[in-house]
Write a structure and sequence with these properties.
The longest helix is centred in the middle third of the chain and has 21 residues, at 70-90. It is built from nine helices and six strands; from the N terminus they run βαααααβαβαβαβαβ. The termini are close together. It is globular, with a radius of gyration of 17 Å. The chain is an alpha/beta fold.
């Protein structure tokens, strides 16, 4: 990792062990629509880590037979934020992540990219006092592929100088579309991706 000049970091599952928190948030949000819907949502959510709630919630509302107009979607997104924001802050660090960020942010360029909405991730980072570790922070709705492409061009790095650290297929595809190296953080929720991905992977960042 220290050989790369610029690192694009995912957040949930890479810096904070907070993926389960998001799963529980969807469970609570859609519990009134029944166990069958909740199980279907859980499977989709865990198979599509890194995808914004603004894409997931309209889909889930449709499965539940509810309106997917913009007002309803925003209402559910706001409720989801209330359910998960503090829980994300309180969730454990991925072992070694904080230490690596603190020790290396002055010598490497760190860019955060996440499916969490921009204002929410900014509040989370401020609460954790780690905003200053990152050169830039990009939340939803900006796609991760665009974050990498734009970042390399604006900051004048080559694809060979860059690394993406993620735990989802979304992160992997964003790296591949920009010809950037990818490091997979292994979790209990991405075992299928672990089996398919032939590149380097880690369980923690204790280097």
């Amino acid at each position: 990792m220290k050989e790369f000049k610029i690192i694009f970091w995912d957040f949930d599952g890479v810096i904070k062990d907070s993926v389960k928190v998001k799963t529980e948030g969807y469970e609570k949000l859609f519990a009134p629509f029944g166990e069958k819907i909740v199980k279907r949502i859980n499977r989709h959510h865990e198979d599509h880590g890194g995808v914004s709630r603004y894409e997931k919630i309209p889909l889930y509302l449709g499965w539940a037979g509810e309106s997917t107009d913009s007002v309803q979607v925003q209402r559910f997104c706001d409720r989801f934020s209330n359910l998960v924001q503090q829980a994300v802050i309180d969730s454990p660090w991925v072992s070694g992540a904080y230490e690596y960020l603190k020790s290396n942010h002055a010598r490497q360029c760190f860019i955060l990219m996440t499916g969490t909405p921009q204002e929410e991730i900014e509040r989370i980072l401020q609460s954790l006092d780690i905003t200053h570790f990152f050169r830039e922070v990009h939340g939803a709705p900006k796609p991760k592929t665009a974050v990498i492409n734009d970042g390399l061009k604006r900051l004048k790095y080559t694809a060979e100088q860059a690394l993406v650290i993620g735990d989802s297929r979304t992160d992997l595809e964003a790296a591949e579309q920009n010809n950037v190296a990818f490091l997979l953080r292994r979790t209990p929720l991405n075992r299928e991706l672990q089996e398919q991905f032939q590149g380097p992977s880690i369980e923690n960042l204790n280097f």
